[in-house]
Amino acid sequence: MTVPTAAPPALLHQVGDRALTWLDAHREHFRLMPEDHATSGAVIERLKPIGELAINMQVLFREGVAGSRQHARAGQLLDFAWRELLDGGNVLAALQRAEPLSPVSLEIYAPFHELGHRHPQLEAAIEVCRRTTTWTALEMVPNRRLGVLNAERKMGLAPSGDFDRAVARTWLGQLPEPWSVQYHIAYDLTHTVFHLTNWGEAPGRIPPAIAAYLTRYLPAWMEDWADLEHWDLLGELLVVDACLPRPTLDGELWERYAAAQCGSGAMPIQHGMPAGDPAEVFDLVHHPTLVAAFASAMATSRALSPGTAR
After folding, report:
1. Residue-range definition of the domain harbouring residue 197
2. Number of compact structural domains in the chain
């Protein structure tokens, strides 16, 4: 088997820099609109991208691969998200009052908390709910349960369940027959790795058996999704690659991925960029663009770390 040539750090970094530029230029589209407050479900859907934005800025700061301009832009975006989009956490506190037994407020608040932002009333309300049996009895898919446990860990809270047991219940934790191009399994797998490693912070938390399984099958999965031009999922799998003990940082895959990125920095979800109303286009491409920033930060960091890339 031919060992892939690793992508040059400059290419890896450029993808993230361009993605961050686009996210900054379109920051206003993250904002909740008055009509979004009609139902809690609508609020939750609008809050998810804000939580993803915070996680991405956290990764960028943590990995230390941003230049001064990029670091400043990430800081401004994070401040914008906390102060303007979330009203200093008040939006999350209102959601917690409306949906007291939902873990969504906790999950979105956790990265902000980890970065030093605080909302004592929200924290107190979350803690009251965490004392109930309902909190641990809530039915959710295994990798989502893992995400709630990781959010608790990020905030320094006592876990509401056993983390290793939660990992074992996920699709990936059971080391099943490898899939090829099954969409729902792919996202379950990537998010299991994200929660297991705290969004790439601690790759060493991946159990050796799971790391060996991913090392064996991940290259074929990445090729499958690259051939389908599904850039959102390929980006998530590139993050998983960067979390492995010996990442491939496959140069050919990264060149295909970078070539799919729009000149403005946006990353299409699949095939090419959609056209239409700017707000509608944002809703379609903000996630793959956030993923591009995430994948870039992780891969650049690993590429610059001696002894990690092949």
Report:
1. 9-303
2. 1
Residue 309 has pLDDT above 60, yes or no: no
pLDDT recorded at residue 294 = 97
Predicted TM-score (pTM) above 0.85: yes
CATH number of the CATH domain containing 250: 1.50.10
Angle, CA of 198, 139 and 188, to the nearest 5°: 45
Q: Please enumerate, as own/partner, the contacts of 84-90 that have beta carbons within 8 Å and a separation of 24 or more.
A: 84/31, 85/30, 85/31, 85/32, 85/50, 86/50, 86/112, 88/117, 88/119, 89/117, 89/118, 89/119, 89/122, 90/119
